[in-house]
Amino acid sequence: MHNGHEMMGRVTGTGCTATVMIGAFLAVDRDSAEAATTGLAYFGLAGEIAARRSKTPGTYQISLLDALFEIEEKELKQG
């Protein structure tokens, strides 16, 4: 895995959120492997963005949710 941040393992709910991301991408992509890969890449990129914004687990968790909402397609392709 190339995306993500170590802080993702220090907050609760990241595993569940990763599963939700895969499900969301499966809803729009019939290729399950591609959907899962893209969903996890999106989630990992959001984790990296959140880490740039916060240094503690409490604020990281909120920053992660914000990053999931804010990522644009162009940013995903670059990340």
Summarize the entry for a quick read.
The protein has 79 residues and is an all-alpha fold. The chain has helices spanning 14-26, 32-53, 57-70, 73-78.
The H/E string reads: HHHH
Q: How many structural domains can be distinguished in the coordinates? A: 1
Strand content of the residues, in percent? under 5%
Tell me the radius of gyration: 12 Å
Number of strands: 0
- Name the overall outline: globular
Average pLDDT over all residues: 91
Helix content: 55-70%
Q: Note the gap between the termini.
A: 12 Å
Describe the biggest sheet? none
Overall description:
- Helix content is 70%, strand content 0%.
- The protein has 79 residues and is mainly α.
- It has one domain (6-78).
- Helix 2 packs across helix 3.
- It is globular.
- The two termini are 12 Å apart.
Question: What labels would you give this structure?
Answer:
79 residues, mainly alpha, globular, 70% helix, 0% strand
